[in-house]
Amino acid sequence: MEPSEDGSFQTHRSRRKRIGVALAGILFLATIFGVVVLVTLLVDVVTSGTPWLDGRFITSFPSRNPGEAGIKSALFGSLWLMGLTALISVPLGVASAVYLEEYARDGWFLRLIQINIANLAGVPSVVYGILGLALFVRFAALGQSLLAGALTLSLLILPIIIISTQEALRSIPSGIRENAYALGATRWQVIWSHVLPMAAPGIFTGVILALSRAIGETAPLILIGALTFVPFLPRGALDQFTALPIQIFNWTARPQSEFEGLAAAAIVVLMILLFTMNLTAILLRNYFEERRAGS
């Protein structure tokens, strides 16, 4: 349509521009609203929890007396849980991604697996809790143990690790593989010496972000029967346990107002752990990117 025909082209263009400006304004306001709500919640949590944060809070076991309660068992339980979850999920997730991306033949079966992995990444965590209760707690007779919790959380984050690792492997140029093959290297030698080191930044980032999600999950741990009051430290993978999300859930359900401050303090500690894990992901990614650029 010519611009001179009754000015209809200019009118249509002006209307589209006004609509674009209006949508941009709406999206900007939605973003500001979300940020304001998040900042308000963070300020409220930090303000409520800071008076309770001290050395005694970190080194004391839970107690029915708010003045004596702490998060020692919950903190150690979370660290145990994350260690076991990483030990189970990282090798399985990375190995699965390497097979699917480097070895599996393209076809309907591979596409079916990829679709199911993508769907599993969006399944609510409570479903994994039900699966963990049926499979690990009852069928495998692991009971309310750290191992049952770690296996359940591993199922939860495995799809995320697989997808992020596959994306990292796909980002490696195919020319690197072809050059290594031309020099006589086997497929595994190419993967081990070239592909995995170059994909390490993306792999580490995906793994730590997946573990960051797992450390804050409450529903799966409640369903598998994690304890809400644990006045002892776990000594092995088959011991009973509690975790920071469970402890926070327990304190928020108490009628005394003091426990709300304790819950806020535990939330601050959990946020510090999450911040540390995300910072580690950033530092590892930057380190491997600089190493790859230097080589």
From TrEMBL:
Gene3D superfamilies: MetI-like. GO terms for biological process: phosphate ion transmembrane transport. Residues 75-281 form the ABC transmembrane type-1 domain. Pfam families: BPD_transp_1. Its main location: membrane. InterPro entries: MetI-like (IPR000515), MetI-like_sf (IPR035906), Phosphate_PstA (IPR005672). Keywords: Cell membrane, Membrane, Transmembrane, Transmembrane helix, Transport. CDD domains: TM_PBP2 (cd06261). It is found in: Cell membrane. The chain crosses the membrane at residues 21-43, 79-100, 120-141, 147-169, 190-212, 259-284. It is a multi-pass membrane protein. The keyword Transmembrane helix applies. One of its GO terms (cellular component) is plasma membrane. The keyword Transport applies. PANTHER family: PHOSPHATE TRANSPORT SYSTEM PERMEASE PROTEIN PSTA, PHOSPHATE TRANSPORT SYSTEM PERMEASE PROTEIN PSTA-RELATED. Belongs to the binding-protein-dependent transport system permease family. CysTW subfamily. This is Phosphate transport system permease protein PstA. It comes from Salinibacter ruber.
